[in-house]
Amino acid sequence: MERVTITNHGYANLQAELQQLKATARPGVIEEISAARDLGDLSENAEYHAAKEKQGFIEGRITTLEDKISRANVIDVSKLSGDKITFGASITLLDEHTDEEVVYQIVGEDESSIADGKLSLKAPLARALIGRVVGDSIEVSTPRGAKFYSVEKIQYI
């Protein structure tokens, strides 16, 4: 069974989502199903079928979260340090064509969000960055062609 590498912040988010689904969403959909049953014939009851579909989604998500939490390899980024890029590092990159600086943190797959500067460990850019040091230049293939970056700063915060 493959371990799921995740930051302690990402792990807390998974646990919070699981708790919300179990404490709020699951009981809510059970009430929806009960109310829809009271409307009569289930074979033509759109509310009932929608509630059952929603229940299936919630139960599937609970199962997925429980599985990921059980396989979690939680990394406390605040305890990491070094001059090489590893999981959890916050990296300042300089786009060598536009001179634009971007900052990304390498995180687990479930907590990634480019809009928030969270780059999945499995993303091509993250894979290209692992093991690099300040001053290194990297090339990453993108759908729009090759992108060239230089590593400006590495932090573990």
Helix content: 25-40%
Terminal Cα separation, in Å?
30 Å
**Overall number of strands:** 7
- Order of strands across the main sheet: 5-4-3-7-6
Question: Strand count, sense and closure of the main sheet?
Answer: 5 strands, mixed
What is the H/E string?
EHHEEEEHEE
Taking all residues together, what is the mean pLDDT?
A: 93
The total domain count is 2
Q: Which residue ranges are poorly predicted, with pLDDT under 50 across at least 5 consecutive positions?
A: none
Question: Rough shape?
Answer: elongated
CATH homologous superfamily heading of the largest domain? Transcription elongation factor, GreA/GreB, C-terminal domain
- Going by CATH, the architecture of the largest domain would be Roll
Radius of gyration from the alpha-carbon trace, in angstroms: 22 Å
- Tally of contiguous helical segments: 3
Structure commentary:
This protein is α/β, with parallel strands linked by helices and 157 residues long. It has helices spanning 8-37, 46-70, 124-129, and strands at 4-7, 72-75, 90-95, 101-107, 118-120, 137-142, 145-155. The two termini are 30 Å apart. A 5-stranded mixed β-sheet has the order 5-4-3-7-6. Strands 1-2 form a two-stranded parallel ribbon. A hairpin with a 5-residue loop joins strand 3 (90-95) and strand 4. It has 2 domains: 4-75, Orthogonal Bundle (Helix Hairpins), CATH 1.10.287.180; 77-155, Roll (Chitinase A, domain 3). The chain is 39% helix and 26% strand. The longest helix has 30 residues, at 8-37. Helix 1 runs antiparallel to helix 2.
